[in-house]
């Protein structure tokens, strides 16, 4: 019996492997760009005025290769959308609601205007946990649907009070500094809540800080330039609490400052401008 040429046999196997790999790659490329998500992204681009920075977003390339877009490696569904600091002036595109597997949405530092749309919520976007449209010109009230684990709305033109739905929401981070918000923000506090960062600076919030329970994991509390009254909770000075940022300046707080490592670390400017706070790092309380 005549034996086959070993070299030809090896080449045949190698060719077969390459053909299988090519077929798998073609199949993967198709899977890595969900058709409905691609259509939604092109609609988002159009609604944003087809900015030059998004010129690579086109129908001839897989959407998961586009700048600012990340996808699930198995399903090809879009999980992250970032349109960051492109100087875009437009409302928040409605087509974002069609990206139903979106987990992270970052629209920060543009010139987006109009209200925060109510579709930004768990009904339309059940997997979304991170919303960042900070540094824009968004106006109006915060919709009650915006109960995302990480909510960053700083530096906009938002007005009104915090939605009552925020009281039951499981936040990890809330940033609403630099808006025109008012009313009570005490519903964000609670000893058992997961909140670890709260930034309320430069609004018109008014609530009794002394009556709230600080979340156990809270390590960023920045509430300066508001109308917060009462006293600083003793828990602020707990030995196990490691503050990364702490600022209660320019409010209406009063009474002795609970003493702890944070009073040495942050200094007088983080407590200044209140009604009658006293004790280190401010002047001693009068007897």
UniProtKB/TrEMBL annotation:
Keywords: Leucine-rich repeat, Membrane, Repeat, Signal, Transmembrane, Transmembrane helix
Leader peptide range in chain numbering: 1-23
Record flagged with keyword Oxidoreductase: no
Subcellular location, principal: other
Gene Ontology cellular-component annotations: membrane
Membrane topology of the entry: Single-pass membrane protein
Domain Leucine-rich repeat-containing N-terminal plant-type: 35-72
A Pfam family it matches: LRR_1
Protein's cellular compartments: Cell envelope; Membrane
Family assignment from sequence similarity: Belongs to the polygalacturonase-inhibiting protein family.
Protein name as annotated: Leucine-rich repeat-containing N-terminal plant-type domain-containing protein
